[in-house]
Structure formats: structure tokens, C-alpha cells
Amino acid sequence: GPKVRADGEDSSTGQTRPAAEPDYASVVARETCPFCAALGDGSLLAENALAAAMADRFPLSRGHSLIIPKRHAATVFDLTGDEAAALWALVPVVKQLLDVAHAPGGYNVGTNAGQVAGQTVAHAHVHVIPRYQGDVADPRGGVRWVLPAKAAYWNEK
Q: Known catalytic residues?
């Protein structure tokens, strides 16, 4: 891909990218990371020593939340064992908060690790997505729909 300098200029074209929407590769410095910024803005839903939970700024459903490590790390595969344990320890805490606040019928829980997998903020995070009766016509397959051509395995003979 193109090399983007710290000033946002693509070194291969000389064009400057909009500052409002940094590309994936540029959201690596703690100073520019929206998740790192949220750690100090008073908006956390829950936290422990190494991880924190917050509402997703672009929710897929009522209560959609994110759980992040407090240390800036690109993906869940970059976490220490203690950080990963702390992150996953917040999943049932967030679920309980969402059960009380929204009473969903189910949850999707998952992560996107890397740009090819759909990760758009290069700070590790786990999505906790409440699901509600009727939010989609047929919920079978859940997260399998990230690859639509292969999702409906029950239709294969």
C-alpha cells in the first residue's frame, strides 16, 4: 500500500489525506488513537487494571460495546496473556450491564484482527453486540456472514 507520512501525505502521490479520517496505518500512535482518548474522557462502562469497556461510537444495535486493552496494541494477538485475560474478563461484566439496560435476546461477541479482516481502528478491541428478536430476518449463522457465500452451510448437500 501507499506510504503515508506523519503529516498525512501519501509519499507515492504527494496527495494529502483528510485529517478527519486517518487511514488504518496512521492510527497507531497513542496520541491519535480514538480508543486511547476514550480511556480518559469519563465515558467508560467498566474497567479493570488492564482493560476497559465503552459504548461503540457507531453502534450496530442498542448497547453495542467495545472492550479494549488499556495499553495501545494493534490486535488481540498482540496482547500479553494478562491483558487478554483482563479483556475477556470484562465480557460477562458488560453483558450483565446490557442485560439490565436493554434486555437483548442474544449476543454476538468477536474481534476483527487486521485490515483484511475489517479492523478499522488499529487498537485491539472486542465487540459485544446485543441482538434483538427480529433485528434480521434470519439470524442463523451469526458471525459466519462475514463471508456471505459460505455462511449458509445448512443449504449445502
A: 125
